[in-house]
Amino acid sequence: MMDNQFLICFLNELQKVMNDKREYLIELDSVVGDGDLGLTMGDGFTAAYEAVRDSGETDTGKLLYSAGKAMSIKVPSTMGTLMASGFMQAGKVLKGKTELADGDIAELFAAYEEGVRKRGKAEVGDKTFLDGMDPAVVKLSHSLENGDSLLLAAQKAEKAAEEGFRRTTTMIAVHGRAATRGEASRTLEDPGAAVAMLMMQAFAKAAESLF
Amino acid sequence: MKKIINKPEDYVKEMMEGLYIAHPDLITYTGDDVHCLVSVNKKPGKVGIATGGGSGHLPLFLGYVGKGMLDGCSVGDVFQSPSPDQMLKVTKEIDSGAGVLYIYGNYNGDIFNFDMAAEQADFEEDIKVESVVAGEDVASAGPAAPGEKNTRRGVAGIIFIYKCAGAAADAMLSLDEVKRVAEKAAANVRTMGVALTPCTVPRVGKPGFEIGDDEMEIGMGIHGETGIRRGKLEPADQIVEEMMDKIVADLPYVNGDEVAVLVNGLGATPLDEQYIVTRKIDSYLKEKGIKVHRYYVGEYATSIEMAGFSISLLKLDDELKGYLDAPAQTPFFVQL
Known about the structure:
heterodimer; A: mainly alpha; 9 helices; globular; B: 336 residues; Rossmann fold; Hypothetical Protein Tm841, Chain: A,domain 3; 2 domains; phosphoenolpyruvate-glycerone phosphotransferase activity (chain B)
């Protein structure tokens, strides 16, 4: 069993990877958007981590909710609010828990995805964050159901997210500025799905630290 | 960049401070945050109306908070949405038990944040919130098919929605009724704009796009979103005719209809030119047999220092006419 220390470790890895990949995200986003994704993700996930780092909060749900709330205040951009919505939904689902089994971790990411999906009113295949996240969530829960360790499951999820991100170059954008390009948007890599890929990298790193 | 400012990062904060100094009889702020603007004139039991969005569009959005229109407004950085937390602070301050209506423009950042604020208002504060999203720019997308979501951007026409909903709330209608009036106004308004020069976001420091000295872009959005046609600048009458053809055909506005007209300068187009435009709009509508109930000419929703203008039409029935004509007093809108 794990407790909130694991989540704080995950959030720390998350802000680290988003800050490390700042320029990469800016570059991806500059092709279609306004190029500020690297800044909002770096600043937003840092705010999420800082809100929980020393909070001493033992309720997993409340911890995640407060991470989301801090992020929504810090970066009220489109993507910032979507990522905050994921944390807040995960917080609602896990409210009341102080210990986490492997299955709860799968539930956390499923709830995160659901929070983003509901806020953005997007579906898998629309060339968004969900196209990186959804394959990872599916892989994570299957892998754990098959008895894999959390580390192995996290690594498989990481790979699934990366493959999902690569597959966005086969999809036509239907949301945001990229959508105005229609068919011409197809070959572009989706910056949102890249964020999902980086998120699962951070999760695999955090899982490594458990072993 | 050539602007009368101090530090770019203080642009919004200092603008807000100036507004509170100039209009203490109408507006103040709540939650210890100058971005959370509320009316000082409270009417107990009235439905609260809030709006919000990025800065850089004055008088939009905050300029319509006052008597007979809006009760609160949260503002973000230039062209950036305010946060759900700021929207929630405004919501709490303006709710007097009758609920709160959000009216804002159709942009993803604003939608996501207002949705989150509405959930928090319900979940954390037990305040009932309804929303009406304005999306009337005919150049930004085709009309939504039945059941599909509207993808048109919201621009200057939102002022008509504020005015009608604000008057309905002032007449002490219920939240559902105020929402119905707002939706009716939203369904009957159409806008189109034209831009001649770009604008510069202070913290960015350079223009958002390039356009030739002799060029115009028909249908450009108020953040510089791509329009439907770029070409050589034409005489005013010709530009108006092209825009009016698109607007009138869209609703459509037909012979016998009665409308209100909003001619809106985008920031750097003088009133002189706006009245030249107004004159042509009038002859165009006369020819179509469309009667004008009222004109509004001036700066209502700008794009910092962009040159250009937009035209909005609101089709009126007796109900909307009554609400449009009702008195209002805000820092930027006074109607006796």
